[in-house]
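Lab notebook: predicted structure, single chain.

Context: the supervisor wants predicted structures on file for every construct in the current expression panel, including those that have not yet been purified. This is the next one on the list. No modifications to the sequence; it matches the entry in the shared construct table.
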Amino acid sequence: QVQVMESGGGLVQAGGSLRLTCAASDRIGENYIMGWYRQAPGKQRELVAFITPQTNNARYVDSVKGRFTIFRDDAKNMVYLQMSDLRPEDTAVYYCNGRNLWSRLDTWGKGTQVTVSP
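Prediction complete. Output recorded below exactly as produced.
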């Protein structure tokens, strides 16, 4: 089973940008839908964006449309979340997720903290 690890979180002012990176331990290009989730204090984990393998179709939660972009580099087994125009309500721990299309098994990273100050 592929393992994933996030990096790139930090503290940023409202209106700023961050790029999150998810590094996978093995090939993800053919069989893994990759996604980013987030969990704010006291709230449930929510899906932020996902991207399909091969066709690279991406979908976003409404609250980040036009501000976040998910993309993948399958040659490097990497997935990214480019976040722009950040808002305080984007503050959360962000998790990378990989779902195997065949086994339906999920793999999760440990998360990276994103904090947006007003």
